[in-house]
Amino acid sequence: MLTLGLITDLHFGPEAGFAGKLRKLTRSAPGLAKAFVARMNDVVHPDLVVNLGDDIEDESHDADLARYDACVKLLRGARAELVNVAGNHDTAHLAPAELLSVWQRPDLDRLYHSFDRGGFHFVVLHTRERKDHDVTVGDEQLRWLREDLARASAPTVVLMHHSAADQDLRGNRWFEGSPHICLVEERRALRTILRESGRVRVVFNGHLHWNHLDVIDGIPFVTLQSLIENLDDDAPGRPAAAHAVVHLEPSRVVVKVEGAERATYQFEA
C-alpha cells in the first residue's frame, strides 16, 4: 500500500476578498501548513506529500517568488518526498524555470511529467489558465499524455490543478456560471485518453475551493478543498484547514478528507 498526503490552494500572501467579502484566510496559511506538516510527520507518515498548487496569492514577481519559496520549503519539512503541481496563481508572475528551481528539479524542463513509485504510475499535468479566459492543457501535452500512458504498465494516479470533470458548479461561490476558468477546455479529450489507457485509478485536483467527487467512465475525479477557504460568509472567518490522506492499493483507493469539512471516498477497481 502507498500512502499520500494531499494539500492544495494554500495562497500564501495578502488577504483576498470576493464579491466584497473575505473569502481566503491567507493570514492563517503558514500556521495551517505547519500543522499539516506536523500531522504528516507525527501521525500519517505518508510515502508522498502532494501539493496540488496555488501556493501563493499572486501580487508581483519578487513577492511571489519569496512566498512560493517559503511555502514549498515549509512543505518540504514533511519527512516524505514532495510532489508539486503548478497552479494558476503560481504562474501568474513566475516562469516555469523559477518554479522548477524552487521544486529542486533540475532534471525537468517543463511543469508536466510522470514517475513511478511503490507500484504506481503518477502523472503530473500542467493546466494553464489565461486569466479570466480559459484553462487548457494544449495539444502537445495531450499527445505526451497518450504516449506516456501507453508506455505505463502500473495502475495510474493523475495529479492536476484544475478539474477535468464536468462538475455541476451550482453553489460554488467562486465559479458558479464560470466553467471556463475552473474546468479544462479539452477535458473530454483528456478523459478519453485516461479511459482508453485502462490504467487510471483516480484523478486529483484543487482550484475550485470545495470538496467534490465525480465518477466518469469509471474513473473518480476528486476535487480537494482549499486549505484556507473561509467556511463562513465573511470576516472574521473559519478556515477549512483541509487536506486529504489517500491509501492506494492496486485494486482499491481510499480517500479521507480531513479538516472542518470531512469526507471519505472509497473506490474499487
Share of β-strand residues: 25-35%
Main-sheet strand order equals 5-4-1-14-15-16
Oligomer: single chain
CATH class reads Alpha Beta
Largest β-sheet summary: 6 strands, mixed
Structural class: alpha/beta
- Which CATH-level-2 architecture? 4-Layer Sandwich
Could you give a quick summary of the protein structure above?
The chain is α/β, with parallel strands linked by helices. The protein has helices at 29-44, 61-75, 96-103, 139-151, 187-197; strands at residues 2-7, 16-18, 21-24, 48-51, 81-84, 113-117, 120-124, 128-130, 134-136, 156-159, 200-205, 212-216, 219-223, 243-249, 252-258, 263-268. InterPro entries: Metallo-depent_PP-like, STPP_CPPED1.
Report on this model:
This protein is of the alpha/beta class and 269 residues long. It has a single domain (2-268), classed as Metallo-dependent phosphatases (Purple Acid Phosphatase, chain A, domain 2, 4-Layer Sandwich), CATH 3.60.21. 23% of the residues lie in helices and 29% in strands. The chain has five helices and 16 strands. The strands form four sheets. The chain has a six-stranded mixed beta sheet, covered by helices on one side. Strand 6 (113-117) and strand 7 (120-124) form a beta hairpin. Helix 4 (139-151) runs parallel beside helix 5. It is globular, with a radius of gyration of 17 Å. The protein starts with a strand and ends with a strand. The mean pLDDT is 97.
